[in-house]
Amino acid sequence: MSAMTEDLRSDEEARADRLVRIGRPPRNRGEAIRKLVWVLPWLVFLSAPVQDLLADHHTTAATIVGWVGLVSFTGIYLAVVFRTMGRPYAGWFIAALVATMWVLAVTLSLSLGSHWLGLYVYVSVTCGITLPLRAAYWTIPLTTAAMMLTGWYVDDLDDAWGLFLIVLLVGYSMTGVRQLVRTTVELRKARATVAQLAANEERLRLARDLHDLLGHSLSLITLKSELAGRMLPGQPEKAAQQVADIEQVSRQALVDVREAVTGYRRPRLAAELAGAQVALTAAGVTAELPDETALDLTGVPEESQSALAWALREAITNVVRHSGARRCTVELLARQTLGGPVLELTVEDNGSGGSGKGPGNGLTGLAERLEKTGGTLETAGTKQGFRLVVRVPAGTPADVGSGA
Fold it and tell me: Using N-to-C axis directions, what is the helix angle for 133-153 and 91-112, rounded to 10°?
């Protein structure tokens, strides 16, 4: 099944690669030949001037001038079209080339007859492909009008009317093709940008998860290691229990890191409350926590529960590592607001509140995580210590004004 998926993905990528080469220079001889094959059928309108020159209807001097003019006209057309597919000429140079084609078409058709009216098709195509849209919108009908006047001058309006719609519509259709090519290139760039943003977002997610996971686990390991060191001389049995706890915490940290790397880490609020009790007790902090067995989270989105669990983990880690607090209170309340029901988590301690140098990486990552779930984060210093308040949606927004 995975092999089939890989094959389908490879086919899609190959097809996308073929599409995005539109409007870009050929990378090799094969692509140059394919682009040339796409261009050559459009040269069918040159068959009438070639037949006219081969039929020996003109003097030798006129025939030579006709061949020179036809080759020059065709060379300019192919150069402009091929460069437009890759690296276009400068604007002023393109305008000069289009003007040269226009002069050649008028001069050759007036001098050599109605067989040369097909040159106006290429002038219209070039205007549609190369000129700015505003300029193309008036040069295309001007080219059509010039062809009709030339047909009237050489007394062959039937051929001119036969080419009227072709000259007019092919020019405007080329403007559409040009816009399609530009859109394709822009979509390719947008897809690359989206891929880059997705990669950046994944890196940020991984950084947040690892910070929250390892910060909490390593703090607990450090506390228990210090406690075991103090107990070791006189209370070896209790020290052994602390070492066993360290082993359990480290194993769980390893599991959490693996889950975070694979993207499946979703901490549970009840488990985090139990972990908070252990961490605070080990740090010698008196803890007042809600009973995790009495929590009723029915109907609360899983993303909101996960966000609250991350918030509780970060808050407890800050209390243990930075606050120097001796007491910590955790409250979890359900509230009804105009925007719908919310769960409110409050963590308050009587410590110093950290370094006072502004929010660290943990709180910054927590704020970003909450923003994705529609939650909010508030932090404030109090007379007794520090307070962190987190609110997350607890259900669908209420229908305000419905009487519910």
Answer: 10
